[in-house]
Amino acid sequence: LDDAFAASLGDFESLDALRGRVREDLEREADREARRAVRHALVSRILEANPFEVPASMVEQYVARLVPDREGADPVRLAEVRDSARPAAEFAIRRMLVLDRIAELESLTPQPADVEARVADIAARIGRPAAELMGRLRKDGRLAELEGDMLEERVFAYLEPLSTIEERT
User: Fold this and answer.
1) DSSP secondary structure, 66-118, as one string
2) What per-residue confidence (pLDDT) applies to 169?
3) Cα three-residue angle 114-117-119, rounded to 5 degrees
4) What angle separates helix 112-126 from helix 143-159, to the nearest 10 degrees?
5) If you average pLDDT over residues 60-72, what whole number do you get?
6) Are the C-beta atoms of residues 33 and 68 closer than 8 Å to each other?
7) Whether pLDDT at 165 is above 80
8) Would you give the distance in Å from CA 100 to the centre of its chain?
9) Per-residue pLDDT, 5
10) Which pTM does this prediction carry?
11) One-character DSSP codes across 12-25
12) Which of 7, 55, 114, 154 is 20 to 30 Å apart from 78, CA to CA?
């Protein structure tokens, strides 16, 4: 490994610059993973403290989207895979319902102007017109996904300061 190798991988002046970028990327990924773990633990605690049943029809629909019918698939194996996916589907649905309820109670649901501002922000970062990006997100059915991400960010921004988070060693 040398400076020439680093330069061949992209816009790196030296091997030290490449190492720095790799370190930054690894640190960012570790931070993201830590946030995911905290959020998962937080939701798990909320669900433990507030148990409720999820309608079977919602679970079936969720599982059917996760594990769709495939032509030529073994029906027994398909049923086994769907059965194994049910606990994760139930957790995901309970998680979604709890986050939606918290957002509703605390008025955290993103409004259309908030979504438009987020799209404009993303568009500016990628050098595209906001209207073009909004149209593409609508067309691809990803606008609801963006709204869901925004809702989650707001709910966790509300919940995390209210929680005691301890680092485990």
Assistant:
1) HS---TT--HHHHHHHHHHHHHHHHHHHHHHHHHHHHHHHTT-SPPHHHHHHH
2) 59
3) 110
4) 110
5) 91
6) no
7) no
8) 15
9) 84
10) 0.74
11) -SSHHHHHHHHHHH
12) 55
Please write the tens of the pLDDT for every residue from 14-27: 888 889 989 999 99
R_g (Cα) of the chain, nearest Å:
21
Give 14's contacts (C-beta < 8 A, 6+ positions apart). 3, 6
Write down the residue that tokens 């997100």 correspond to. Answer: 137
**Treating both helix axes as pointing N-terminal to C-terminal, what angle do 56-66 and 75-105 enclose, rounded to 10 degrees?**
120
Q: Tell me if 132 sits within 8 A of 123, measured CB to CB.
A: yes
Residues in the chain: 169
Amino acid letter for position 11: D
Assess whether pLDDT exceeds 70 at residue 167: no
Two structure tokens written together for 131: 């209207």
Q: Which amino acid is at 138?
A: R
Token readout for 30 is 């570790």
Q: How far apart are CA 146 and CA 133, in angstroms?
A: 12
Q: What pLDDT score does 72 carry?
A: 87
The rounded mean pLDDT for the chain is: 91
Phi, psi angles (nearest 5°) of residue 132: -65, -45
Instruction: Report the SS3 class of residue 7.
Output: helix
Torsion of CA 76, 95, 44, 167, to 10 degrees: 120
Element (H, E) at 164: none
